[in-house]
Write a structure and sequence with these properties.
Layout lengths: L13 H12 L6 H18 L11 H4 L3 H12 L3 H14 L4 H20 L7 H10 L4 E4 L2 E6 L2 E8 L2 E8 L6 H13 L1
Antiparallel strand pairs: 1-2, 2-3, 3-4
Helix pairs in contact: 1-2, 1-5, 2-4, 4-5, 5-6
Length: 193
């Protein structure tokens, strides 16, 4: 049987049973927007390469993990501080796909590559100037006041400062409500952040 004709009997679906479970377990550690983007990109990857165990060709996961789309996802995860999520997904996938030699080998190679990326990425030293430039680059209205940055986005303002390599921030949202319950609902939403 050629590699292209390999039949893969995976134990779990990569996106539904592995990735979604790990993404859900990371909800308290990373912003929902980052995890949502990872989930969305994995879904697009599955749509394109059709590697679902539910009527697809699971052996095509190896091809997906070699694609530009996967590399873009790795780069996004790295920049978002979520590379460990992809690593955990691949660790669990290795167990589920060990009866699929080609896929298993690709997963193992990707795990090794991700480990090298994590170890080889020195933490960039943060400065107030870098924060200001990055915020402006991302399209925010920024005002610099000595050692603080004020971001003004209409009814939301944020004050950022840098202390011992950590960004300290305070986010304020201005609004109006007709009742105290309306205010409390908004406060509860802010607590979820």
């Amino acid at each position: 049987m050629s590699v292209d004709q390999e039949t893969c009997k995976a134990r779990k679906d990569f996106v539904r049973h592995i990735a979604n479970k790990i993404i859900a377990s990371a909800m308290d550690k990373l912003p929902a927007s980052v995890l949502g983007e990872i989930r969305k990109r994995l879904g697009r990857l599955e749509d394109k390469y059709d590697f679902s165990v539910h009527g697809g060709r699971p052996e095509r996961l190896a091809e997906a993990l070699s694609s530009d789309e996967w590399n873009d996802l790795v780069e996004y995860a790295e920049k978002s501080g979520a590379l460990w999520v992809l690593r955990r997904i691949l660790e669990e996938a290795a167990e589920a796909y060990k009866d699929c030699p080609r896929v298993y080998e690709k997963i193992a190679a990707e795990l090794e590559r991700l480990q090298g990326v994590e170890e080889g990425t020195p933490r960039e030293e943060l400065t107030i100037d870098k924060l200001e430039r990055e915020l402006k680059y991302r399209g925010f209205r920024v005002e610099r006041k000595r050692d603080k940055i004020i971001v003004d986005e209409g009814n939301i303002t944020a004050e950022l400062s840098l202390e011992e390599g950590l960004i300290t921030y305070r986010v304020c949202k201005e609004g109006k409500a007709h009742t105290l319950d309306g205010v409390l609902v908004r406060i509860e939403k802010l607590r979820e952040l």
